[in-house]
Structures are given as C-alpha cells and as structure tokens.
Amino acid sequence: MTGRRDGSLMRNSANSIRGSRIAIAIGIGVFIGCVFAFCFPHGIFDPNSQIQAQRNFKNSIQVGSASCESSERVNILKKELFSASEKNSELKKQVRELTEKLRLADQGRDQAQKQFLVLGEQHKAGPFGTVKGLRTNPTVVPDESVNPRLAKILEKVAVRNELIIALANANVKEMLEVWFSNIKKAGITNYLVVALDEDIESFCTSKGVPVYKRDHDEGFDSIARTGGNHAVSGLKFRILREFLQLGYSVLLSDVDIVYLQNPFDHIYRDSDVESMSDGHNNMTAYGYNDVFDEPSMGWSRYAHTMRIWVFNSGFFYIRPTLPSIELLDRVAARLSRENAWDQAVFNEELFYPSHPGYDGLHASRRTMDFYKFMNSKVLFKTVRKDAKLSKLMPVIVHVNYHPDKLPRMKAVVEFYVNGKQDALKPFPDGSEW
Ligand SMILES: *[C@@H]1O[C@H](CO)[C@@H](O)[C@H](O)[C@H]1NC(C)=O
C-alpha cells in the first residue's frame, strides 16, 4: 500500500510538472487559436475541440490529486495520464501546424495586399460563366523624367500612344530600307528607328524616316557598334523599357520584316504581350497536348505534356504595364549574366510557372494569328503552295526562318505588293545550308 502511495505521489509531482508544460502548451494553443478564430472565424481550427481538451486535462489532474483507493483507480489514472500525454503531443503538433499556417497566412496576406494595391476594389464572383480574370493590366503612369528627349520625339511620332520601333546598325542597312519603304507604302506613320550608330542615323534622316539615337551612355556604344547578335538583343530590352516607362505601347520589330498592312488594325491590345509565333499550324502556334509514352509504366504509360512553339521575340506588341516592364528587366538581367539566346530567355520568363525557388512572371499573353503575322516557314512551306491561302494578304511577313533574308524579303514584296505570281517560286522551302 505504502509503495503504491509513494508511487502515486511521485507520479503526482511528475504529473504537476507535466501539467505546467501542458498548461503552457494550452496557453500557446489558445492564443494562436484566438488569432485564427479572429482571422478565420469558420475555418482552419475548431475552438470546441480545444475547450474539450482543456476539460479533459482538468479532470485528469483532479483524479491524480485524489487519494488512491484501489488498483482499479490507479489503472484509471494511468489511462487518463496516457491520454493526457497523447493530447499534449497532439497539441504540440497543432501548435506547430498553426505556426506554419500563420506563416502561410502572412505570406498570403502580403500577396493579397499587393494585389489589392494594384487592382483596387474587391468584387464578388458573379454567376456561372460570367466570371473573367484580368488579362488587361492597368498601364503605368507615364514618367517623362526618364528620358525627356525621347518623350518629345514620341509625342510627335506615336499615334494613340503606340508605335513600331526597330533597332538597327549599319550591318542591316539594306534590309532596313526594305523595312521602312514598305511601312511607308502601307500608310503607317507611327514608327521609329532606334539607330545604333551615326551611319544609320544619317541614313534615316536623309530618307525622312523618324530616327532616334541614344545619347552616349556607358557600355551602350561599344555593344551597339561591335556587339554580336545576342549582345544587341540584350540592349533591345533595356531600350524598350524607357518607351514603356514613358507610357507607350510598343510594337517591337526586327528589320527582316515586310509590312503589307497596318498591324495596329489587327492587334487585340488585351494582353501584356501579344506576339507572333514561330509555329506553323494551329497546334504548334496555339498550343497542344503532346502525349509522352513510357510503355514500362503499363496502365499509366501515357503522360500528357503541354507544348507551344515559342513566341518570336523579333515581333511583339508590349503594353506599358508592370508585368511587361518586369519581363523586360528579367530578360535583360539574365542576358547580362548568361550567354543565352534572347528569344529562349524571353519565352522562359513568359511561360515558366512559379515553383520552389523561383517566382514566375505573371504577364498575360496572346499569340497573334500566324496567317496574318506570318513567319517565313509558313509562307514557303505552306502558303505559297496553297491556292486559297496564297490569295490572303498577310499583315506582315517575317523572314525569320531563312538566312537569305534580303532576297526573300524582296520576293515577298514582288509577290504581295507587285502581284508577281511566281516571285516566290525560285526559293527552296528551307535553307540549303
Ligand atoms: C485552325 O483554327 C481556326 C480557328 O481557330 C479554324 O477555323 C481552322 O479550321 C483550324 N484549322 C485546322 C486545319 O484545324
């Protein structure tokens, strides 16, 4: 009997230490529970279960402090004690979970607050089928202080706050001439050449072509003059940024493009980036489900993938929004760090989702009609051989798939502008290396 009594006393004191730990744990649990009850009145945590747990603890402590009358009573006590310690670890687990939830909620609130700052008023979702997410982001407030000289030029050149721009140095002079001649012929007035050297600047001036040459700034001149394709491409994204900061939408254009109609009559303007595609049919241009087959997996041998041919970074329309400017910055930053192809980087930044260790860009995107904004593969592989398709007038033709750019550009002009039916015939579908 004595032994039992002593044992029960020891258990008693152990119990009271445990009890105080439990009380602390309960305290933390109750506190975080209150925080959550306040933040999420109906979710995440049920306060009733906590109250119930508290009651059970009180009961078990009362039972423990009562004198031991029988072994039966001790057994009950043991059971209570066991269930109390179980509840204790359960509570600890809940505290851990709640701490994590609190952290996530904090994160969520930050994001939500940012969204709210950007998007303003909150709305209830409407009925089925009527709900539409934002794809047309608000434009930034124009900031003339970024480049007052350019702002003056754009005031004169832009029409409805938009214009075509192309970067050019002396290496592409001949193509540039075909480029602006056809722009003029198509009746387009809002275009601007960003001259990368004095030769191009004076050439444009002599031809009555709107031109802008940047002031001498660090690194720019040497890259512009001597830089390879990739280095110049990186520049493009930095220069473009100023146009957007000044509040203009830009149709960025390579010079190996023939204009046949005014592209501004064929643009949707609903997305941050609207781009021509390197794709050659509905699937490749607009996206499709590409099934990957792994027979050893048996029942689940087919894995579905998403594929789309890349956006062409040589012809895209970009609206002056925060995601657009973020895109330009991300691409420019990566091109300055990596020796990468600007078009690959442009597409990766546009399309890869957020994942562990990476915050994806959330820009809205639209693929242009690949028959209106036609790449040279579509023209030479498909369109020129198709009686119906060859009668349709594209908006532009981009000789991006062929290295013999100048003769193909001239042939495109002959075919579409001068109506020479066999102008495209001498050329092979692809290049002959
Ligand atoms: C491609 O898509 C267009 C419009 O989405 C459709 O009219 C046309 O029939 C499609 N062409 C083919 C070959 O499926």
From TrEMBL:
GO cellular component, one term: Golgi membrane
Membrane topology: Single-pass type II membrane protein
Molecular function per GO: glycosyltransferase activity
Keywords: Cell wall biogenesis/degradation, Coiled coil, Glycosyltransferase, Golgi apparatus, Membrane, Signal-anchor, Transferase, Transmembrane, Transmembrane helix
Similarity comment: family membership: Belongs to the glycosyltransferase 77 family.
Transmembrane segments: 21-45
Family matches, as InterPro entries: Nucl-diP-sugar_transferase (IPR005069), Nucleotide-diphossugar_trans (IPR029044), RRA1/2/3 (IPR044290)
Enzyme class, broadest EC rank: transferase
Enzyme Commission no: 2.4.2.-
Organism encoding this protein: Aquilegia coerulea (Rocky mountain columbine)
Pfam family, one: Nucleotid_trans
Principal location: Golgi
Coiled-coil annotated residue ranges, if any: 74-115
A GO biological-process term: root hair cell development
Protein name per its UniProtKB record: Glycosyltransferase
Subcellular location, record wording: Golgi apparatus membrane
Span of domain Nucleotide-diphospho-sugar transferase: 188-406
